[in-house]
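Standup notes
- DV: blocked on the single-chain target, sequence here:
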Amino acid sequence: MKKWILIFCLSLNCFGLTLNEINQTMQTHIDKSLKLLKEAKGDKRVVADEIFKLFDGIFDFKLMAKLSLSKYYDKLNAEQKEEFNKQFEASLKKSFSDKLSLYKDEVLKVKGGEQKNDKRYFLRTSMIIDGEEKFVIFKFYNDNGNWLIYDVDVLGISIIQTYRSQFGDILENGDFNTLLKKLEQVSFE
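- DV (later): unblocked, structure below
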């Protein structure tokens, strides 16, 4: 179940929202996504593209890719950065699609948000799993008035920090091409 929440949260290119739109737009898109999943017959992965259409403009996949590579990102040339950004987004989406079969009619509800400062807003959502309330926090940043998601905490675990640790281990023992091959072959969890 944790994997489904993580991947669902990631399904959300970069148009952004105004600060005042975040809570309502996210709840509306979440509700539409859950409806698509409930109505899916058989393989729930078939609705993944529809869910991506709802959320792609809210996630800053390029910034997420950069943050996940940390110090290694600046060492890449422009071509490598472009390739990594592409592979990173594709890997997230593949992982999301693969995990949709875990969905079991759960409901994700916006609980409210907190503006941490002029540049950060954390949207808190919750889901009841096995009778217990679990939280997912969408972390937004302000890009000239367009608020975009740069990270998601799922059950207290940052997606970016998780990827940064995994990618760092790979790059300490291999090179950039090794990382790209792993992104193409597997979904990180």
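- Follow-up: Confidence is low (pLDDT under 50) at residues 6-14.
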